[in-house]
Design a protein that fits this description.
With 520 residues, this protein is α+β, with helices and mostly antiparallel strands. The chain is 49% helix and 10% strand. Bound molecules: protoporphyrin IX containing FE.
């Protein structure tokens, strides 16, 4: 007994002393970088700020206090010097995604552990996937689905028109009667839209007014799940666990009973159902959905992907295609409602474009070149980037010089988009929501702004869905702004951020009324 207690005591002592020993030994020369609290010594500082769903906020504060280079984990250095963007993310940097991304892998319902385009760390595997997926998201493919998305927008406007006439249902969690959670409705829209665009079949969430999705296990059992909280729980849990990247597998094994741990598998079951449904139904009539685009090339040659890969990449289309876009649209709507001057100016641009006998939903052709609309979208993604945190990359063999600082190989490095977007030397008065800055800037200033605007990241791992993201925002935001007035619960309401993987807005309760008489 005594021997056991001594062994346990010894193990605890080693567990406590090891990080201190590593810290002072400083083999990678990281002690020269300042660190907030115990971040240089232990991963607990990161774990706590992730647990609070506020990683970027605390990393940003650490930079404000300690300067442009900060050690935010024992093996992770964060940079807010803009020179670090190409040094870390460009093609030439030679950096790959680090082991943080392993948290998004694991066996699927058939026991296969296939990496997706977003989390593979293998250069060749990534290049192959990027090639067959990029045609699915090319601007031409996106524009092709405009009539399909149009019908989904009309469904949403039909529902909102009903709210304006009869009042919305009584939501028990609404802070005031007659208010609706705009962010939730936008998220129902993004699911239905990606269902149509990617698989030729909507999720049917707008019709239900709810996010209850069908899921299918590997052995064919079907069940229902609320997909929005499922995805949110899963990404919150995965990112928290990734704090201890080398221990991800063990941590997941010992936390099997937590909802967040199980949520990833449930989300995969929803994707499995969607893919199986698409395979049963065959291709949709009249247009090429993204599924067909990535299964075959332009000459109709089959890519011959195996089911695990089809499932993984479909999962990414559903996950990446929803949460970021809904976040961006929730944010821009909130910022427009908060800034009536900007809203009025945007309407001046939109009103003449919608014909008097139009159906109320903008077509892509009508909005694609509207400059003020684009400036509003960019300004919102600058102020509230949907992916705010620094995306970690691993310094390759031989080390690297980042923004003038030598960093040893194997160290994780990152640049948080939020901090770059709020650097006053790049974006004057950075906390102001002023879309005009994108139209007024000229010459060198314009170049600086464009180079340091990184909501979609840059380089080989930059967002592949950027065209789709702008397309959805342009048509939906234009339609909502043109057709409705929105009122916040109180004019001074500030929309909180809940940072899981993406920096999601909290609930956005608004009162919706029609701008024009009901016939338009
Ligand atoms: C406003 C909306 C969006 C934002 C802000 C956004 C942002 C980003 C960012 C920052 C990355 C880099 C992630 C990393 O390095 O870990 C990324 C990658 C990616 N995004 Fe998006 N995204 C958006 C919409 C979409 C959409 C609509 C899709 C497609 C359905 C999509 C698909 C992807 C994919 C597949 C990757 C991985 C690319 C690769 O590793 O080669 N995204 N996105």
């Amino acid at each position: 007994m005594l021997l056991l207690a001594s062994l346990a005591g010894f193990a605890i002592l080693v567990g406590l002393l090891r990080p201190i020993f590593i810290y002072f030994k400083d083999e990678k020369g990281l002690r020269k970088f300042p660190a907030p609290s115990i971040a240089g010594l232990s991963n607990w500082w990161m774990a706590v700020i992730q647990f609070r769903a506020a990683r970027t906020k605390y990393v940003h504060k650490a930079h404000e206090k300690l300067g442009p280079v900060v050690r935010i984990q024992p093996n992770h250095v964060s940079f807010t010097d803009p020179r670090a963007i190409p040094d870390i993310y460009s093609f030439q940097s030679g950096m790959m995604k680090d082991d943080f991304y392993e948290t998004f892998s694991g066996p699927d319902q058939f026991g296969v552990n296939e990496h997706s385009i977003t989390n593979t760390r293998d250069r060749l595997v990534h290049a192959r996937k990027r090639k067959f997926l990029s045609s699915a998201f090319a601007l031409k493919s996106v524009v092709n689905v405009d009539p399909i998305v149009h019908t989904v927008i009309l469904k949403l406007t039909g529902i909102f028109d009903g709210f304006c006439t009869y009042g919305p249902p009584q939501y028990p969690d609404a802070p005031k009667p007659g208010f609706v959670n705009l962010y939730k409705w936008i998220n129902l829209f993004t699911y239905d839209a990606i269902g149509e665009m990617a698989f030729g079949q909507s999720f049917g969430f707008l019709d239900m007014g709810d996010d209850l999705a069908t899921a299918e296990t590997g052995d064919g059992k079907q069940y229902k799940t609320h997909i929005i909280p499922t995805f949110q729980n899963s990404s919150y849990f995965d990112v928290l666990v990734a704090t201890w990247a080398p221990l991800i597998d063990q941590l997941k094994r010992f936390t099997w009973f937590l909802d967040g741990n199980r949520a990833g598998a449930v989300f995969m079951d929803v994707c499995n159902y969607k893919v199986r449904e698409r395979m049963r139904n065959g291709k949709p009539e009249g247009f090429r959905d993204f599924f067909e685009n990535f299964m075959t090339d332009k000459q109709q040659g089959e890519h011959n992907l195996d089911y695990s890969e089809i499932l993984r990449e479909s999962n990414i289309m559903i996950a990446a295609g929803n949460d970021t876009s809904a976040t961006a649209m929730g944010n821009v709507m909130f910022l427009l409602i908060k800034h009536p001057r900007v809203m009025a100016k945007l309407r001046e641009e939109l009103d003449p474009v919608m014909p008097a006998d139009g159906d109320g939903a903008f077509a892509y052709e009508q909005v694609k070149d509207l400059k003020y609309l684009k400036a509003c979208l960019d300004e919102a993604m600058r102020r509230r980037p949907p992916v705010s945190m620094g995306l970690p990359r691993e310094v390759p063999k031989g080390g690297a010089t980042i923004a003038g600082h030598y960093v040893a190989e194997g160290v994780s490095v990152s640049v948080p988009a939020y901090s770059i977007h709020h650097d006053a030397s790049l974006f004057p008065e950075p906390y102001e929501f002023r879309p005009e800055r994108w139209l007024e800037a000229e010459g060198e200033q314009k170049k600086v702004m464009q180079q340091n605007f990184i909501p979609f990241s840059v380089g080989p791992r930059a967002c592949i869905g950027r065209n789709l993201a702008y397309f959805e925002q342009q048509i939906l935001v234009a339609t909502l702004v043109h057709r409705y007035n929105f009122e916040l619960v109180t004019p001074d309401y500030e929309l909180p951020v809940i940072e899981r993987l993406n920096a999601n807005p909290d609930q956005l309760w608004v009162k919706v009324t029609r701008r024009f008489p009901m016939q338009a």
